[in-house]
């Protein structure tokens, strides 16, 4: 492509404007070829990590004091795409970082200005976990939250003694009110503002299934769990469930900071506003359905 316009440039029979256009085309294509060769011979690093911060290819430099935490997740970044392991960088001031992305000339970054900063495997020369180790080596105070759950069910809030105590009390109160022949119990709940729903699904020893209502003590502990799970960046859970088996000592907690069960009515706008007033969260962490509800 770089040499083809030479047919015009070196053909004395062609008009001067066409020869000039051919020369310009040769220069443009030649510059592209040189740029590609340079990238192949001396490729630019996709990620530069220092003691001061890091620079991710196509995005503005990030200083460590700007980072609230980094969470490693497993999920689908693109609709219909495959599951992959990636890291999400949570900023202390997302709006300031977004304004710097807008000021950047990189077209890819500006197209995804509202998207959180994801460190993805396809743009890294090494595994995401190796990158996290390198970042922690350069910044000892970096908080890295890990988990294998899908992004919408991942609780990024660090474990705390208060949360451990509330979960333990909740499990104890729940098991105390279960019938003698229970095998599996699933406590499900949803709470947005003051719009709350909860129930217990039971599998009994004879393989039958039954429903039950949680006691006032259990509901009070569910409310307390919402309080102790609050984080100023991600807010707190909107729904969740606790699964307990009679032959196991541990219970499985699954909390969603983004969604409510599909079988429940969507909370009205006032309840959504109450939720954000009681538990404010970063703009990037507000679910799209909740944002549309209050707009």
Q: Major beta sheet, specifics?
A: 5 strands, antiparallel
Q: What do the pLDDT scores average to? A: 83
- The spatial strand order of the largest sheet comes to 10-9-8-11-12
Task: Tell how many strands the DSSP assignment holds.
Answer: 12
Backbone structural class: alpha+beta
Distance between the termini: 52 Å
Strand content: 15-25%
- Give me the number of helical elements: 9
Rounded Rg: 27 Å
Describe the SSE topology:
Layout: H1 6-9, H2 16-41, E1 47-49, E2 53-56, E3 62-63, E4 67-75, E5 84-91, H3 94-103, H4 107-111, E6 117-120, H5 128-138, E7 144-146, H6 161-176, E8 182-192, E9 195-204, E10 209-212, H7 216-228, E11 239-245, E12 252-256, H8 269-278, H9 288-294
Parallel strand pairs: 4-7
Antiparallel strand pairs: 1-2, 2-3, 4-5, 5-6, 8-9, 8-11, 9-10, 11-12
Explain this structure:
Helix content is 35%, strand content 24%. It is α+β, with helices and mostly antiparallel strands. The strands form three sheets. It has a five-stranded antiparallel beta sheet with strand order 10-9-8-11-12. Helix 6 (161-176) packs antiparallel against helix 7. The longest helix is centred in the N-terminal third of the chain and has 26 residues, at 16-41. Mean pLDDT is 83; it is low at 147-157.
Summarize the structure.
The protein has helices at residues 6-9, 16-41, 94-103, 107-111, 128-138, 161-176, 216-228, 269-278, 288-294; strands at residues 47-49, 53-56, 62-63, 67-75, 84-91, 117-120, 144-146, 182-192, 195-204, 209-212, 239-245, 252-256. The longest helix has 26 residues, at 16-41. It is α+β, with helices and mostly antiparallel strands.
